[in-house]
Amino acid sequence: MALSTASNFAKPDDAFRAIVEAHRGLSEKDSADLDAALVLILANHIGDITVLREAITLAKRRMIDTSQQQQQQQQ
Amino acid sequence: MVQTNPGQGASQAKVQFGYIRHGDQDQAAPVAHPVVVVGAGPVGLSFAIDLAQRGHAVVVLDDADRIGEGSRAICFSKRSLDYWDRLGVGDRMVDKGVVWNVGRIFHGPSELYQFNLLPEPGHKRPAFINLQQFYAEAYLVDRVNALPSISLRWRNKVTALEQRNDGAVLTIETPDGPYRLSAQYVIACDGARSSLRQMVGAGFSGKVFEDQFLIADVKMTAEFPTERWFWFDPPFHAGRSALLHRQPDDVWRIDLQLTPDCDPQVEKKPENVRPRIARMLGHDKFEFEWISLYKFQCRRMERFIHGRVIFAGDSAHQVSPFGARGANSGLEDAENLSWKLDRVLRGTSPSDLLETYHIERSAAADENIRESTRATDFMAPVSAQEARLRKAVLSLAKETEFGKRMVNGGRLSVPSVYETPLSTADAEAWSSGPCPGTSMLDAPLKAADGRHLYLTDAFNAQGRRFTVLSFANGGTTDVPDGVGVIRIGDADGLADAEGFAGKRYGAVPGTSYLLRPDGYVAARFQHPTRTAIESAVARASGLS
């Protein structure tokens, strides 16, 4: 199975909102703890190491440095 | 018989051996031997016994004259016990050792979960015994002394190595001065600080863990069950991890994780260790047998074979201890190498067969390093985010099954599965049973005379050679010359009385497994033919 990047929620705003609200009012530290638990829970639900690795790769693409991002935007 | 003296205190040798001058030392030219083993630890001694039982003369050299500085390795796996059964020392080890199958993991004051490493009956040996390494070594030395073809020489320190095309020449320092020996093969079982490894100029790089661990053996009478107990963040040792394990003679192994910046010399002092242990036990009625402080390392040699010098055990690979993968993997090295070297020395296999020792055992070392690195990283997270993820896992483990399974307090040693040129790939579809490259599974059997025995016993009785395990279908099993046969289900043969053998091997009438001399599956057939078995034996012997 490959990582699905199509929009899977009927109401994507509800999903985004649910995550945002979960973090609302939390300290930076508690927010980070929440994310760690959430990632592990969701990873286990997916239960497919290939999908997990693809998701990590996609997420890590955000870590490319700013200048590279700017270059891409200019192109 | 070697007498051991437990309870003498932390630093005293348990067994002392005398140096004895050997006739080889009077010869001007180096006396030639087929095999010289360097290092009389569990791996070197087991290897020597194995090779001697296969009919070869072996010289074993050790630079010390005593064993028993602390208990060191204590957990010996089922696989190691099966091997020691083949070497004639299994019963002694198990009789003295404490048997355990269950581990418990605690977080803070409460239990997270427990695991049973051998939940199903029908095995000759338990998942593990705990036994101080000095007992294991003493029993192996007794066995060595019963085998005249082994010459065990204490206070023989190898100081130089000269490689030749057809062997190696060793220079050996003794209390009587130096002498030289030549060997067709030198087996270096001289431990993590191997001097042979330096002599061949091989590197030994890997990862050093920053956290220090205090290891103490304490003598006390206690009511704890015989189980492996592991704590994350225990009340008595806040923020770190701890391990408690029982050994024979009312001795308990305690591992306490310390901070990276603590001073080993200060931490090691009994007056500083005692309060920590007292907090853990809730009392201070104990005596120290041994105290040691470690920084763990995971590393291996790039190649286990250097010319005519072959490395086995800690000299070739080193792991952190959570998982009992050190001594047990060294014993697997010994077993893997001995039958191959036997064939090469006899000329029944080409010397290329030895290369499969490197292939199989270096892959096993990688697996052991991977597993023990993961466990050590889990215990000692290296960044704030790693600590956060671990905290999440420990917290989720209280409520969820998947969280429990992610908690890593050490994944305990199981035999490696080999991807190896010696295996013959399955030609048929199998839904169960051990695939080629997997260690044989034990099962209870019943002989025609009503005697109970195990499949591992039947394998040993065949002489630890290539053996066909055959599930009867009324016909006979046609096997090549020199190959042993174990037939299960014949009216006059061995009965699968409890049904475990058939189930574990996914057997139907006619199913046959070809077992290597180290008990690994080389090939399996639902419809065996003599030609197919012959070809699998040839492949597993390095002949095709």
Q: What is shown here, in short?
A:
By secondary structure, chain A is mostly helical. Chain A has helices at 12-23, 28-46, 49-60, 66-74.
> Largest interface, with Cβ-Cβ < 8 Å?
A-B, 8 and 12 residues
Taking the alpha carbons of the first and last residues of chain B, their distance comes to 46 Å
Query: What is the ordering of alpha helices and beta strands of chain A?
Result: HHHH
- Helix content class of chain A: 55-70%
Q: What Rg of chain B do the Cα atoms give? A: 24 Å
Helix/strand-derived class of chain B? alpha+beta
State the shape of chain B. Answer: globular
The secondary structure category of chain A is mainly alpha
Number of helices of chain A: 4
Low-confidence stretches of chain B: 3-12
Please tell me what the overall shape of chain A is. Answer: globular
Give the biggest beta sheet of chain B.
8 strands, mixed
Q: How many DSSP helices of chain B?
A: 14
Can you give a write-up of this model?
The complex is a heterodimer of chains A (75) and B (544). Chain A is built from four helices and no strands. Chain A has 75 residues and is mainly α. In chain B, strands 2, 3, 10, 11, 12, 13, 19 and 20 form an eight-stranded mixed sheet that branches. Residues 3-12 of chain B have low confidence and may be disordered. Chains A and B meet through helix 2 of A and helix 10 and helix 11 of B.
What key phrases describe this protein's structure?
heterodimer, A: 75 residues, mainly alpha, 4 helices, 69% helix, 0% strand, globular, B: 544 residues, alpha+beta, 8-stranded mixed beta sheet, 14 helices, disordered N terminus
Write the layout of secondary structure elements.
The complex is a heterodimer of chains A (75) and B (544).
Chain A: H1 12-23, H2 28-46, H3 49-60, H4 66-74
Chain B: E1 15-16, E2 31-38, H1 42-53, E3 58-62, E4 66-67, E5 75-77, H2 78-86, H3 90-96, E6 98-100, E7 102-107, E8 110-116, E9 128-130, H4 133-145, E10 150-154, E11 157-164, E12 167-173, E13 179-188, H5 195-199, E14 205-219, E15 228-232, E16 241-247, E17 251-258, H6 264-267, H7 270-281, E18 287-300, E19 305-306, E20 309-311, E21 317-318, H8 327-346, H9 353-379, H10 384-397, H11 401-406, E22 444-446, E23 452-454, H12 455-461, E24 467-471, E25 484-488, H13 500-504, E26 512-515, E27 521-525, H14 530-540
Parallel strand pairs in B: 2-3, 2-13, 3-10, 7-15, 13-20, 24-25
Antiparallel strand pairs in B: 1-4, 5-9, 6-9, 7-8, 11-12, 12-13, 14-17, 14-18, 15-16, 16-17, 18-21, 19-20, 22-23, 24-26, 26-27
Helix pairs in contact in B: 1-4, 1-8, 2-3, 8-9
